[in-house]
C-alpha cells in the first residue's frame, strides 16, 4: 500500500525531530557502537556465579562456637520462653518483627565487653503466630500440617545494609505417622512460598527478603540491585558499595567501643574484633558472583511478569533492528551457534516490545513474532502500529 500524504508529513516531522535532537549524530547515522558491557558484566558465567554463591552462603553461616552462633542459641531459648508465657515473641508484642540486640550506646553503659556489639538483628518469622494466620496450615496434598520445631543452623543470614541480619523461622510437617489421617511426609520451612501463600496478602508483603536455596538478600538490597544493574553501576561496583557500608558500620561500632572505654575510664579492655573474624564480628559482604547469581535467579523467577508487562506495551511507532553483540552468551549445539542474531522491537518510548533470537537476517523468520505482537496490541486495547522504522527494508 502507498504511504499517504499525512503519513509522509508525520514521517518527515519525526526525521526532523531526530536531526534536531540527536546531538551525537548516533541515531541518524546508525554507526555508533552500543556499549553492551553491562550485559557482559551480569551474564558472564552463570554456573560459576551460582557455585560461588553456594560456597559463600555456607561460609557466611554462623560458625560453631562463634559469637553469632551463641547469640542465635540465646535468642531461640528466650523466644521459646516468651512464646510459653505470652503466646508470642516479645518483639511481636512490641509491634516489631526484629529481635534486636541492644544499641552499642546502651550495651556499653552496662559493660565494656565487645561481644554484644557483634550481634545482628534477628527477623522472627513464625507464620502460625502472625495476625490473620489460618488455624492450621495445609500441605500441598491438602492435609493439615503440624509445627515441627526449629532449624539447625538456627537462622539464615540475610545480606543487607548497613549490616546483615538473621532470619529465624520454624518448620512444618505433614506427619506420615499421624494416627488418623496420616500425612504425606513433606516438610516445609515457615519461609516456604506455599506457607506464605496461606497468609493474608498484607502479612505476606511483610516478608523481608528474597531467598533461594543458596542465597538470601533483603528486599532493600534486591531493589537497589534492580535499579543499579540496569544502569552504569553494575554488580561489581554494587558489591563494592555493600562492602564499603558494612566495613564502615563495623568501624563506627569499634569507634563507639573505644571511645566508651575512654569515657568510662576503662583501660586494657579487650581488642575489638577484626571485620572478618568468623568467631568475632564475622562480617562477610556479598561478592560480585554471589549477587550476580541471585540477580539471575530473581530474573528467572519474575520472567513471566516481565513478559506480561512487555506484552501490554503499545507499539504505535515501532523500530526494529538486528543485534549481534550478546549472541556470544548463548549456548550452541556441538559448538555450533544456533542463532546468528537477535531482533529487537522498540516502541515510541524506547521500551523493548518484542525480542527474539533468529537463525538468519531474513524477515520471514520474524513473521510469528510480528503476528504475536499484532495480537497482543489488540488484546491490550492498543492502537495498531502506525509507523515502522527499519534500516533494512525487505519484501516478503
Ligand atoms: Zn502432605
Automatic annotation (TrEMBL):
Give the InterPro entries listed for this entry. DUF6729 (IPR046616)
Boundaries of every DUF6729 domain copy: 100-285
Name a Pfam family for this protein: DUF6729
Q: Which domain of life is it from?
A: Eukaryota
Q: What is this protein called?
A: DUF6729 domain-containing protein
Q: Which organism is it from?
A: Favolaschia claudopus
Amino acid at each position: 500500500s502507498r504511504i499517504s500524504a499525512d503519513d509522509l508529513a508525520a514521517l518527515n516531522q519525526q526525521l526532523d525531530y531526530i536531526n534536531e535532537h540527536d546531538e551525537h549524530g548516533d541515531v541518524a547515522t546508525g554507526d555508533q557502537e552500543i556499549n553492551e558491557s553491562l550485559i557482559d558484566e551480569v551474564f558472564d558465567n552463570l554456573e560459576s556465579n551460582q557455585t560461588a554463591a553456594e560456597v559463600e552462603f555456607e561460609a557466611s553461616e554462623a560458625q560453631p562456637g562463634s559469637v553469632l552462633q551463641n547469640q542465635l542459641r540465646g535468642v531461640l531459648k528466650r523466644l521459646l520462653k516468651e512464646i510459653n508465657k505470652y503466646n508470642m515473641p516479645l518483639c511481636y508484642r512490641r509491634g516489631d518483627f526484629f529481635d534486636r540486640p541492644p544499641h552499642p550506646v546502651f550495651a556499653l553503659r552496662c559493660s565494656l565487653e565487645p561481644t554484644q556489639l557483634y550481634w545482628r538483628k534477628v527477623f522472627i518469622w513464625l507464620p502460625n503466630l502472625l495476625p490473620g494466620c489460618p488455624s492450621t496450615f495445609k500441605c500441598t496434598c491438602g492435609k493439615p500440617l503440624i509445627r515441627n520445631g526449629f532449624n539447625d543452623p538456627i537462622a539464615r543470614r540475610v545480606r543487607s545494609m548497613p549490616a546483615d541480619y538473621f532470619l529465624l523461622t520454624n518448620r512444618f510437617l505433614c506427619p506420615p505417622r499421624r494416627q488418623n489421617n496420616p500425612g504425606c511426609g513433606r516438610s516445609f520451612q515457615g519461609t516456604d512460598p506455599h506457607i506464605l501463600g496461606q497468609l493474608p496478602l498484607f502479612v505476606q508483603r511483610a516478608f523481608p527478603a528474597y531467598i533461594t536455596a543458596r542465597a538470601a538478600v533483603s528486599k532493600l538490597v534486591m531493589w537497589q540491585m534492580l535499579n543499579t544493574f540496569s544502569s552504569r553501576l553494575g554488580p561489581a561496583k554494587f558489591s563494592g558499595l555493600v562492602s564499603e557500608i558494612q566495613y564502615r558500620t563495623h568501624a563506627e561500632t569499634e569507634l563507639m567501643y573505644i571511645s566508651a572505654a575512654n569515657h568510662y575510664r576503662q583501660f586494657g579492655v579487650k581488642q575489638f574484633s577484626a571485620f572478618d573474624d568468623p568467631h568475632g564480628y564475622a562480617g562477610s559482604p556479598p561478592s560480585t558472583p554471589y549477587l550476580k547469581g541471585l540477580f539471575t535467579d530473581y530474573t528467572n523467577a519474575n520472567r513471566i511478569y516481565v513478559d506480561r508487562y512487555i506484552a501490554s506495551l503499545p507499539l504505535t511507532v515501532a523500530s526494529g533492528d538486528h543485534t549481534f553483540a550478546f549472541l556470544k552468551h548463548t549456548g550452541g549445539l556441538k559448538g555450533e551457534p544456533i542463532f546468528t542474531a537477535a531482533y529487537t522491537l522498540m516502541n515510541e518510548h524506547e521500551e523493548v516490545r518484542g525480542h527474539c533470537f533468529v537463525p538468519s537476517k531474513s524477515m520471514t523468520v520474524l513473521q510469528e513474532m510480528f503476528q504475536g505482537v499484532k495480537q497482543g496490541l489488540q488484546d491490550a486495547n492498543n492502537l495498531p502500529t502506525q509507523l515502522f522504522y527499519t534500516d533494512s527494508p525487505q519484501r516478503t
